[in-house]
Amino acid sequence: xxxxxxxxxxxxxxxxxxxxxxxVQAGPHGLAGVATVDAEQVTLAxxxxxxxxxxxxxxxxxxxxxxxxxxxxxxxDLATGQALSADAPPLSLIGTRSPGK
Length: 101
Prior knowledge:
Layout: E1 5-13, E2 16-27, E3 30-37, E4 40-43, E5 45-50, E6 53-60, E7 66-75, E8 78-85, E9 88-97
Antiparallel strand pairs: 1-2, 1-9, 2-3, 3-4, 5-6, 6-7, 7-8, 8-9
């Protein structure tokens, strides 16, 4: 299963919704990727595909740095899952892969 391409995700939680664009590609040692929220882009760590489960660690920046552990179930061009942080409630994720990627 290929997960390469541009994924447009919506994260929903108690504080509202956030739109995230995730680029996944082949890297020198497996998968590589970046996530963009608004104008901020971060490199994804520990990006792995296990069957239909795509996971990564996403650093956050700002006044209080944080880390999200993201887990998605991928079915074709649809992805659903959660993002977990030590200091906040879980975020529900849903999104699609952009055509042509």
